[in-house]
């Protein structure tokens, strides 16, 4: 059937009839319909929520045990909440010392891992004969690995300093020497 035939319907007539035939039922209180009409297109008409995907950042090894965790005041107690300073117990000092030793061990392992990775990338850089690949892939990775290694060395130095200062902090806080030993 063509649109010029008398008695036939055109496509636009069919579409208009279909749209007119739909009856919109009021939504239930428990149901939600999301369509183009229900979406807000600009912020001045209502709430607009957006999200931005951020790259996952690897936390530094030092973030595992912050320096504040090495002080006895870092653990809140019931007495501290009431306003009075409570002396850390033997268990508190053992936990603090264990965390400090673990931080040093983790940082040492991270430095060793990064040293090996940096050495491998250095060897790859000098062994690879394709200059384009070497300059575009290996060199940036090598530079990044060297930066990570320097940061890890600084974190290790700070962790070792915190561990070395721990006996003096414990002594000043009134802890017995055996409380921070392994």
Question: Can you put this structure into words, describing what you see?
Answer:
The protein is mostly helical. It has a domain at 89-172. Helices cover 53% and strands 0% of the residues. It is built from four helices and no strands. The chain has helices at 11-21, 78-81, 90-127, 131-173. Helix 3 (90-127) packs antiparallel against helix 4. The chain is flat, with a radius of gyration of 33 Å. Mean pLDDT is 76; it is low at 59-69 and 72-84.
Coarse structural class: mainly alpha
β-sheet strand percentage: under 5%
Q: Please tally the β strands and state the result.
A: 0
User: H/E element string?
Assistant: HHHH
Biggest sheet: strands, sense, closure?
A: none
Q: Helix tally?
A: 4
Determine the fraction of residues in helical runs and give it as a percent range.
40-55%
How far is the N terminus from the C terminus? 93 Å
- Uncertain segments are 59-69, 72-84
3D shape:
flat
- Averaged pLDDT: 76
The Rg value, from CA coordinates, equals 33 Å
Keywords:
182 residues; flat; mainly alpha; 53% helix; single chain; 4 helices
Short description:
By secondary structure, the chain is mainly alpha-helical.
Write the layout of secondary structure elements.
Elements: H1 11-21, H2 78-81, H3 90-127, H4 131-173
Helix pairs in contact: 3-4
């Amino acid at each position: 059937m063509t649109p010029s035939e008398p008695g036939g319907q055109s496509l636009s007539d069919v579409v208009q009839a279909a749209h007119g035939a739909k009856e919109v039922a009021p939504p239930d209180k428990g149901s939600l319909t999301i369509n183009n009409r229900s979406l807000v297109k600009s912020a001045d008409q209502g709430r607009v929520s957006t999200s931005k995907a951020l790259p996952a950042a690897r936390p530094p090894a030092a973030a595992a045990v912050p320096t504040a965790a090495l002080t006895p005041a870092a653990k809140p107690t019931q007495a501290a909440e009431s306003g009075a300073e409570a002396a850390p117990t033997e268990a508190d000092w053992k936990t603090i010392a264990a965390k400090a030793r673990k931080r040093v061990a983790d940082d040492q392992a991270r430095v060793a891992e990064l040293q090996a990775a940096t050495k491998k990338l250095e060897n790859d850089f000098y062994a690879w004969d394709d200059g384009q690949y070497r300059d575009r892939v290996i060199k940036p990775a090598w530079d990044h690995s060297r930066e990570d290694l320097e940061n890890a060395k600084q974190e290790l130095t700070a962790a070792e300093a915190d561990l070395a200062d721990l006996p003096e902090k414990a002594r000043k806080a009134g802890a017995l020497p055996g409380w921070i030993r392994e």
